[in-house]
Each structure stands twice: as C-alpha cells, then as structure tokens.
C-alpha cells in the first residue's frame, strides 16, 4: 500500500529505500502487536484487581462489624478458667522463687 501511494505520485524508490520502508512498516506492526497484547493482558488484571480490592474491603468491614458486636465483647475479653488457673499458679511460683532467691542472697552474703 505504501508503494502504491508512491507510484500514484510518480515517485521512484530505489531498492535500499524500499527495504528501509518495509523494515519501518514491520517494526510499526510489531510495536502495535506488542501494545495490543499488553493492553489485552492488562484489562483482566486491572479488572480483577478492582474486584478483589472491593470484595476485600467489604469483607473486612463485615468481619469487623461481626467481631465488635456488643453481645460478643464479654466473651472476647473473658479469660478461660484453665488459663486463669495457670496464671495464678505461675504467679504463686514466681512469688516462691523470689523468696527463695532472697534467702539464697542472704545466705551468700552472710559473713562467714
């Protein structure tokens, strides 16, 4: 089609110029093929990005709403009985160990 336009204008083209024109046309077609492919690939990606982000935001809001219901707050902040027992046992053990440490320090620092 490029040659036809030049022939219509009564212009002659030497073989080198014709090869350069064909190269430029090939490069332009390749460039547009790459751009078309990239655009074709990016449309589903961007669509999924927006869909996933919107769904994520809605789910997050709903989960927070369910988590912070007033009737569940007491259950969330209540301590299980076995955890309470373990904590009390650890507190007693800490007290005993601190007393034992104090006794050992007295024995160690007592004059001989």
Structural write-up:
The protein is an all-alpha fold. Helices cover 87% and strands 0% of the residues. The longest helix has 53 residues, at 15-67. The radius of gyration is 40 Å and the shape is elongated.
Summarize the structure.
The chain is mostly helical and about 110 residues long.
* Biggest pleated sheet: none
Helix content: over 70%
CA(first)-CA(last) distance: 113 Å
Structural class of the secondary structure composition?
mainly alpha
Taking pLDDT < 50 over at least 5 consecutive residues as the criterion, the unreliable ranges are none
Assembly state (oligomeric): single chain
Q: Please write the string of helix (H) and strand (E) elements.
A: HHHH
Q: What's the shape? A: elongated
Number of helices: 4
- Mean of all residue-level pLDDT scores: 85
Count of individual beta strands: 0
- The share of residues in extended strands comes to under 5%
Rg, please? 40 Å
